[in-house]
Amino acid sequence: MTESFVAMLRRLLVADYGSLKQRLARRFGSSDFAGEVLHEAWLHLNHLEGSGAEASVRNPAAYLYRLALNIAVDQKRADSRWLAKAEIESYCSLAVNELDPGRVAEARSELSTLSRALENIPPRRRAIFVASRLENLSHKEIAERYGVTVRIVDRELKAALDYFSEVLEKKLAPRRGPRPLKTS
């Protein structure tokens, strides 16, 4: 592109700055972001000098808007790769809360209670629970291993989880796997 074409694009940018900023602000939801994009477009025009693409530009106003859109998209992509300050603070506070001695003691107490409760359930129910939750076997694999039906596996797991809920006096996380068929 010749110097005169770049100068013409700059004049066009200055002349249409308000409308370009408004269009970009509508598209991206921020007037400040639109201003930054137009500033980057102004700087980008320096790189166009001597590129020889002047002949391919038929509509300079549309070219300028497309240039600004491309810059905006590139900036949005780059920004999405970084964590926001609030996200970083959230992760830091989670790490601090996880190391809270009170929570650690409570978790150890619950684990001890669950360990004792696991010893108090019938052997088949315990084996099915361990296979499901610790070995991550599917209900079908557990049924084949112990020579029972998938429905019995479901019932045994439900009974174990209900018992653990009573022991801990609160609901445990929702169970995984297929739900048993309801009979009325």
Which secondary-structure class do the elements indicate? mainly alpha
- SSE order in H/E notation? HHHHHHHHH
Biggest sheet statistics: none
The low-confidence runs, each spanning 5 or more residues with pLDDT under 50, are 171-175
Rounded mean pLDDT is 82
Terminal-residue CA separation: 80 Å
Count of DSSP helices? 9
CATH fold-type name of one domain: Rna Polymerase Sigma Factor, Chain: A
C-alpha Rg, in Å? 32 Å
Gross CATH architecture of one domain? Orthogonal Bundle
Helix content: over 70%
* Extended strand count: 0
Q: How would you sum up the global shape?
A: elongated
CATH class of one domain: Mainly Alpha
β-strand percent reads: under 5%
Folded structure, characterized:
It is a single chain. The chain has 184 residues and is mostly helical. Among the domains are: 3-80, Rna Polymerase Sigma Factor, Chain: A, CATH 1.10.1740; 121-168. Helices cover 73% and strands 0% of the residues. It contains 9 helices and no strands. It has helices at 3-15, 17-28, 31-48, 60-80, 85-98, 101-119, 123-133, 139-146, 150-168. α3 packs across α4 (60-80) and α8 crosses α9. The radius of gyration is 32 Å and the shape is elongated. The N and C termini lie far apart (80 Å). The model is unreliable at 171-175 (pLDDT under 50).
